[in-house]
Specification:
Layout lengths: L13 H14 L3 H6 L2 E2 L10 E2 L1 H11 L30 H4 L2 H13 L7 H15 L11 H15 L3 H14 L10 H8 L7 E4 L43 E4 L2 H10 L1 H7 L1 H5 L6
Antiparallel strand pairs: 1-2, 3-4
Helix pairs in contact: 1-3, 5-6, 7-9
């Protein structure tokens, strides 16, 4: 259905017209269309960033065709097969899976930013930076990993196995040396985290008592000694260094819940699960 023009390149093929009609009928079953009468336009110009009425989407697809690599309609309710993160030349048995890592990450970018039409400058720049990273293969000819997917996977490995910063940087340096020249693998942990941080799932560091008695937060943010056990908030300073910053003995990482809930509701993959109790359980029953 992606073969849009005939051999003369003057008319649309019957296959493409039938495919677009089938797509429109499928998209009309989406909850967003049922409630608003519109859905995302996957043409090569709008790339699922603009929400339009079905007739306008049809015209755009006839004029421009589908966006590149939109083999699975992940923004329109279709699930794509699972893929592995193994990088290298694809075999005939896994090419269908490995070719879809970039479209999947593009959907992640759309869901994470929640940006579709009017964009403030900062949010727009972050969005397009992430979208570009999600589309760029780490080296020319690699079909399984993009710049963003490599960063996400490496941070996942670091967290799962508690890899030290220096070990991470050494390992990532080896990857850059052994991959083709001009590869897009981040050079160190700082640049890896900086790229992924644009997804917006941030955290806040809060000093706390070493014995877990209290947090140095809000009205207690200026306290230097625990009100319950008198444990010091900061480590002792060295006498040999005059200008030395206060270093807390213990701190916690707070992950705000609201941005994470927004991501779950923004993604078509998880939104249905988030609404399950409301949609499936009759009103008045627990």
């Amino acid at each position: 259905m992606y073969n849009r023009l005939s051999q003369s390149r003057k008319t649309l093929t019957d296959e493409f017209i039938n495919g677009v009609n089938f797509f429109i009928q499928q998209a009309k079953q989406l909850p967003i269309f049922i409630s608003e009468g519109k859905f995302r336009c996957p043409c090569s110009k709008h790339k699922n960033l603009v929400i339009l009425e079905p007739d306008d989407v049809t015209v755009d697809l006839y004029r421009r065709g589908f966006m590149p690599r939109y083999w699975y309609w992940t923004c329109h309710g279709e699930y794509e097969p699972q893929f592995d993160y193994q990088c290298g030349p694809s075999t005939s048995s896994n090419v269908a899976e490995t070719e879809n890592i970039r479209p999947n990450l593009e959907e992640l970018v759309h869901d994470a930013t929640g940006i579709y039409e009017e964009l403030p400058n900062t949010e727009a720049q972050n969005f397009y930076d992430l979208l570009h990273a999600a589309q760029q293969p780490i080296w020319k000819g690699c079909t399984t990993h993009s710049e963003l997917s490599v960063a996400v996977k490496m941070l996942s490995i670091k967290a799962e196995y508690n890899v030290a910063r220096e070990c991470f940087n050494q390992f990532i340096g080896l990857l850059k040396e052994t991959n083709p020249t001009d590869n897009l693998i981040p050079t160190d942990l700082y640049r890896t985290k900086k790229l992924v941080s644009k997804l917006g799932l941030t955290y806040t560091k809060i000093d706390c008592c070493v014995n877990g008695c209290m947090l140095y937060f809000k009205e207690d943010i200026a306290e230097t000694v625990c009100r319950h056990c008198n444990a010091p908030r900061f480590k002792p300073k060295s006498r040999n260094r005059r200008k030395q910053k206060d270093v807390s003995v213990s701190k916690m990482f707070y992950f705000p819940i609201i941005p994470r809930l927004q991501r779950l509701y923004a993604s078509m993959r998880s939104a249905a699960h988030m609404r399950w109790h409301n949609d499936r359980i009759p009103q008045g029953r627990i």
